Amino acid sequence: MLTYEEMQYFVAFAQDGTLTKVAEQFTISQPTITRAMKKAEETFGVPLFDRTKNSISLNECGKLAARELSILLKQTDDVLFRVRAYDKANRTIAIGSAAAVEIPGLIQALTRRFPEKSISTELKMPDELIQGLEQNTYQLIILPYVPESNSYSVRKIGEEHLMFLLPKSHKYAHRKSLSLAEMNGENLLLYSEIGFWADLVRKAMPDSRFLVQNERYSFSELIENSILPCFVTDLTNTQYKDRVAVPISDEAVNVTYYLVCKKSMRREYAAVFD
């Protein structure tokens, strides 16, 4: 029977057409590929190749074998993924979150209840979180809204409110609140790892240009050394001596977070739902 790797070589040969390219792709010697092709023919028990003095190519039986092996590889990959995911789920509590910050108390409660398990968190968009929960990629997710399906258990877990962080010299720095529309058209700093907030402000401020930063350190340095406004929330607001946080008046930036799991897992995670 062909090994997983030998099936990969055969399918790759069907796609690339030469033994040399397959050897380069898998960083192995060409004789290894040649032996795998010979073993494939022996395994199927029928001729799979048209041979000339200097080359081989797949005949019709070989092309069929390649298509079937491609399907088998895909099925094998799916099985490996599901089994590994199941094992990970038994050892790890995977939390997918739309919130760019840790929800106070959640990790601590899970750690007390499941001291033998590790806890991983991942920032994703809400649609991806729902899909991940359905596919058991996550055991728990945090959404900025209540999902429509009645197949989930849901608990309100926290709130977050977006604010502008303005230089004290900014014309609106004295304001008690400020709308997104009033700031539309200004250039702003934007940290990339803020989840759904980025889409929200881009849509609400179509005339603004955003200087996006992917690294937290670089973002903080720009806050300290530039005069560009940026965003913070009441959960992430770090004090800067030359800046002032001004709440945003738009209702859309006042978000309630909900902890969600499948109803079938409700009892398992009662420690964070009760």
Automatic annotation (TrEMBL):
<feature type="domain" description="HTH lysR-type">
    <location>
        <begin position="2"/>
        <end position="59"/>
    </location>
</feature>
<keyword id="KW-0805">Transcription regulation</keyword>
<dbReference type="GO" id="GO:0032993">
    <property type="term" value="C:protein-DNA complex"/>
</dbReference>
<keyword id="KW-0804">Transcription</keyword>
<dbReference type="GO" id="GO:0003700">
    <property type="term" value="F:DNA-binding transcription factor activity"/>
</dbReference>
<protein>
    <submittedName>
        <fullName>DNA-binding transcriptional LysR family regulator</fullName>
    </submittedName>
</protein>
<dbReference type="InterPro" id="IPR000847">
    <property type="entry name" value="LysR_HTH_N"/>
</dbReference>
<dbReference type="GO" id="GO:0003677">
    <property type="term" value="F:DNA binding"/>
</dbReference>
<dbReference type="InterPro" id="IPR036388">
    <property type="entry name" value="WH-like_DNA-bd_sf"/>
</dbReference>
<dbReference type="Pfam" id="PF00126">
    <property type="entry name" value="HTH_1"/>
</dbReference>
<keyword id="KW-0238">DNA-binding</keyword>
<dbReference type="Pfam" id="PF03466">
    <property type="entry name" value="LysR_substrate"/>
</dbReference>
<dbReference type="InterPro" id="IPR005119">
    <property type="entry name" value="LysR_subst-bd"/>
</dbReference>
<comment type="similarity">
    <text>Belongs to the LysR transcriptional regulatory family.</text>
</comment>
<dbReference type="InterPro" id="IPR036390">
    <property type="entry name" value="WH_DNA-bd_sf"/>
</dbReference>
